[in-house]
Amino acid sequence: MERKWAGMGRSGRVTLTDVAKASGVSRATVSFVLNDDPRQTISAATRERVMEAAQELGYVAHGIARALREGSSRIVVLNVDWGMEGNFSRSYVRGLDEELAEHGHILLVRHGHAIPEATQQMLDTIAPRAVLRLGEAYLQGHEPTEADWENGFAANAALQIRYLAERGHTRIAMGMTDREYPLTGVRLGFAQEAARRLGLPPLERFVVPRPRQAGAAAVETFLAAHSDVTALAAFDDDIALRALTALRDLGLRVPEDVAVIGFDETEYGSLSTPALTTVHIDAEILGRIAARNALGIDPGTLAPPPGRIVTRASA
Amino acid sequence: MERKWAGMGRSGRVTLTDVAKASGVSRATVSFVLNDDPRQTISAATRERVMEAAQELGYVAHGIARALREGSSRIVVLNVDWGMEGNFSRSYVRGLDEELAEHGHILLVRHGHAIPEATQQMLDTIAPRAVLRLGEAYLQGHEPTEADWENGFAANAALQIRYLAERGHTRIAMGMTDREYPLTGVRLGFAQEAARRLGLPPLERFVVPRPRQAGAAAVETFLAAHSDVTALAAFDDDIALRALTALRDLGLRVPEDVAVIGFDETEYGSLSTPALTTVHIDAEILGRIAARNALGIDPGTLAPPPGRIVTRASA
DNA sequence: TAACGTCACTAGATCGTTTCAGTTCACCGC
DNA sequence: GCGGTGAACTGAAACGATCTAGTGACGTTA
Which of A259, B35, B88, B101 is the most exposed place for a label (fewest CB within 10 A)? Predict the structure, then answer.
């Protein structure tokens, strides 16, 4: 089955012209009908005929041509420039994707540390409606307000620290990645502020590098210098897992000697020994908000659900 | 600094016309120069003038317009429809990306289980030069030949089984995912064939589901029914890690009671107790081959390096 | 000197949309 | 029977590239 109907350009593509010809109207009219342009008045009969013809022929708008005319395509690009494989990222992407779809747009996720040049070239090719970055949107696009402390990024960061504080830990250290990401500074800042609000001393910051041996060495050095530390809050589950392994390699007991808590639940955290206590974050609503912002739609009163602790054995 | 130079359309975009105007030639000529079209003869002087003007004005080709004219954009889409976070996927993407870049194309990676409808819509918008799928390309696009057994997917699958066989294991089971991926069947087939060639009995197949408790239950059930099994070969490191945890939860010793080997090295495998023995695969060359195939370029004599065992403690 | 070839370029069609600026027609009030 | 109005359309110009089919100008050959 090659061509179901006559009236299809040599290219194999059904175009507006084909639909116009089939329904006996002009291209313009077809366009008006298909996009139901509110500025036009089209008779019900014509509308019907056009719709039917489009259906029959299997017309699908040529996004490239449309984008050329409109100035930008109906695509939104999300850059996820660090391998955040947790629940946050996944749910955020889901929310973003769904909300965009509801407004006729498409999400394109670009993972990995993009070569700037290639990215730029891609953007020129795609001409996306908007380009987002995972980290930026986490903050809902503004400086942290008290609302963020109630229910947002800051609140989730605080949740992690508070959990440890409630278990009686007062000297808490913050395990960070060996690479600087856009979000690392922000996260650390929130954690520090949370500690301050809880009346705790400032969090000592240290890095847990890979591979395994280096991680263990780093943790050993750190604990030697800060023997009063009894708990580690990690930047994410990855770091937490590295720390957990390091502590066990050093012969320390978790959580008795040092408690460890992760951030942004992953499957791997559930498989370690001891299993990792962590923070679960559902960012779907955040994704939806970002989508609306990107499209210039009123975000309404969407509010993200609070994060919650996944209590397991490590803290 | 808004507009560096005069002669830039109201849209803020520098177009071919602008460059043409600036260098005193026609649009066509500019296009010929910039794409150095071999079918045209352009004087050195003109070439120079055009290049310079383009540089000055900061001209960058409008991919959308080009795509409309050419029928497809210079984008290649790669669908990675299952979370394969190992070395294979990463190196494959790197190779693909680099090779495409060398030919003026761009890689767009689409992660996650794409909604078919949205994907189709995206493809209509992007009009990519080619759409690839991670699994397909693993096979270099053809049925497994003896070459694949020498050095390819089949060889890597065999490597895993052979390692266990060399350690004296004869009853080996294959741990699979709970979801069926395009590749699962192929992988299992190769492993079975490898076992046959090594004179081993057929591999018993079983699934290691999540979460942790379910995994342990599955492993327990399986081992009860197949008490002679002494080694588990996993579909990937993820499954291996689940199995490792399950075995430990059941009080079994790894590798003494049951040996475990993963596939496609991840960082997590190095953090477990015992650390996971696995197979490391560098797929960069495979990515380059796929790129050339996609662009219709002769792949030449590129040959992927053989996989290698990463010997750690679990097998 | 007419015919022919090559060089160095240009005009304009083309890709498939969207959308502005009309056009036609029926109907209304006076 | 004339101007005015709104409904229901249509024509054609964009958008920014590529690329075919020419067009002069100059040099070479018979």
Answer: B35
Which residues put CB within 7 Å of chain C, the nucleic strand? A 9, 11, 13-17, 27-28, 31-32, 34-35, 37, 39, 59, 61-62, 65-66, 68-70; B 24-29, 32, 40-43, 45-46, 65, 68-69
- The stretch B143-158 carries a mean pLDDT of 81
- Residues B112, A50: Cα–Cα separation, whole Å: 36
Q: For A155-164, how does the pLDDT look when each residue is reduced to its tens digit (9 = 90+)? A: 999 999 999 9
Which residues 1 to 40 of B reach strand D, CB within 7 A?
9, 11, 13, 15-17, 27-28, 31-32, 34-35, 37, 39
The nucleotides of chain D lying under 7 Å from a protein CB are: 7-21
Cα angle B252, B256, B262; round to 5: 85
Distance CA A74, CA B281 (A): 38
Say whether residue B109 is in contact with chain A using an 8 A CB cutoff: yes
Q: What is the structure's pLDDT at A83?
A: 59
A253 touches chain B (CB under 8 A): no
Contact B200/B161 with Cβ under 8 angstroms? yes
Between B183 and B73, the more confident residue is B73
**What single-letter DSSP state applies at residue A244?**
H
pLDDT band at A252 (very low <50, low <70, confident <90, very high): very high
Is B288:B95 a contact under the CB 8 Å cutoff?
A: yes
The average pLDDT across B65-89 equals 84
Distance of CA A5 to the CA centre of its chain: 44
A24 touches strand D (CB under 7 A): yes
End-to-end CA distance of chain B: 63
**So what's the pLDDT on residue B148?**
75
Residues of A whose CB is below 8 A from B125: 63-64, 66-67, 73-75, 106
The DSSP output letter for A277 is B
- Enter the tokens of residue B158: 């065999």
Rounded Cα–Cα distance for residues A154 and A163 (Å): 14
Q: Is the distance from CB of B150 to CB of B187 less than 8 angstroms?
A: no
| Residue A6: pLDDT band with limits 50, 70, 90 | very low
Q: For strand D, is any atom closer than 7 Å to the CB of A125?
A: no
Question: What percentage of residues in chain B have a pLDDT greater than 90?
Answer: 60
How many contacts (CB atoms, under 8 Å) link A and B?
126
The residue among B271, B276, B312 with the most chain A CBs within 10 A of its CB, best to mutate, is: B271
CB contacts of B110 in chain A (<8 Å) are 108-109
Distance CA B185, CA B178 (A): 13
Q: Pick from A174, A259, A251: which is nearest to A208 by CA?
A: A174
Q: Is the pLDDT of residue A60 over 70?
A: yes
Q: Provide the pLDDT confidence category of residue A173 given band limits of 50, 70 and 90.
A: very high
Mutate to test the interface with B, among A271, A273, A312 (most CBs of B within 10 A): A271
Q: How confident is the model at residue B1 (pLDDT cuts 50, 70, 90)?
A: very low
Within 27-86 of A, beta carbons closer than 8 Å to B belong to 60-68, 71, 73-75, 83, 85
Chain centroid offset of residue A269 CA:
20
Distance, in Å, from the CA atom of A143 to the CA atom of A140, rounded to the nearest integer, reads: 8
Q: Which amino acid is at A210?
A: R
